[in-house]
Amino acid sequence: MEYNNLKISDNGNIRTVAISVPKSLNALNSCVLTELDSFLSAIDTNATRVLIITGDGEKSFVAGADISEMSGLNEKDGFDFGKRGADVFRKIETLPIPVIAAVNGFALGGGCELAMACDIRIASSNAKFGQPEVGLGIIPGFSGTCRLARIVGMGIAKEMIYTGRAIRADEALRIGLVNAVYPQEELMDQAAAMAKKIAANAPVAVRYAKICINEEYDLPTDKAIAFENTMFGKCFATSDQKEGMDAFLNKRPANFKNE
């Protein structure tokens, strides 16, 4: 598929996709969501070990959902639009490979929600995060009320959503919304460096770890531990486990095959 709103690049087994809608600061409309959904479905997760999501340009990661499209929606249309965004973001969250959000500039509304669907978030020093939807007469519609509370805690999430205020990168780091903050000119290099560290590890083990963290989050402790035990055992059925331990014992670099 040819993409009009996405810029895609590859560096070995690391793939980068940039949302690119310059005239609206990369706002998410139905066309962008459709392209992003198609792109995610087409990823070969055997060849690609890490995905980086960013925004095209220096001003904005994603400024939000497209208000010009939402303004004329009725209740059913609003439900459908919200579900489309939520489904695409859930696909990111459950993608079998790690996803890094490299947040450059504005990450408001749908942009903040997109970043939260990723496994790891790093930001440029000029980044701004927020869920300003209540000022528009709506609530966060792409799973923001769900994920923000889980990431930063209920009290902070309620304050951010009820007030609609935007926070700067340093505050996002303090509350745990992002993992690190870098000067803008270093952001993509830092994202690539992190991706390379992840990609150097056993892909099956990384995939199993992501499944465990996602699945165990809401489970009672005993069930979460039992699930982890099962996945730990499955690791020993992989050639990557044999390769990784043999490489360690023989003091050589591992050559993981993703199997």
Textual characterization of the structure:
By secondary structure, the chain is an alpha/beta fold. It is built from 11 helices and 10 strands. A 6-stranded mixed sheet has the order 1-2-3-5-7-10, sandwiched between helices. Strands 4-6-8-9 form a 4-stranded mixed sheet. The longest helix is centred in the first third of the chain and has 19 residues, at 75-93. 36% of the residues are buried.
Helices and strands, with pairings:
Blueprint lengths: L5 E6 L2 E6 L10 H13 L7 E6 L4 E3 L4 H4 L4 H19 L5 E5 L2 E3 L1 H8 L2 E5 L3 E3 L13 H9 L1 H10 L3 E2 H6 L5 E3 L4 H13 L3 H14 L4 H15 L3 H11 L10
Parallel strand pairs: 2-3, 3-5, 4-6, 5-7, 6-8, 7-10
Antiparallel strand pairs: 1-2, 8-9
Helix pairs in contact: 1-3, 3-4, 4-5, 5-6, 9-10
Key structural traits:
10 strands, 259 residues, alpha/beta, four-stranded mixed beta sheet
Written as H for each helix and E for each strand, in order along the chain, the element string is EEHEEHHEEHEEHHEHEHHHH
- Let me know the largest β-sheet: 6 strands, mixed
Whole-number mean pLDDT: 97
What is the number of beta strands? 10
Oligomer class: single chain
Helix content: 40-55%
Q: Which outline best applies?
A: globular
Determine Rg (CA atoms, Å).
19 Å
- End-to-end separation: 28 Å
Share of β-strand residues: 15-25%
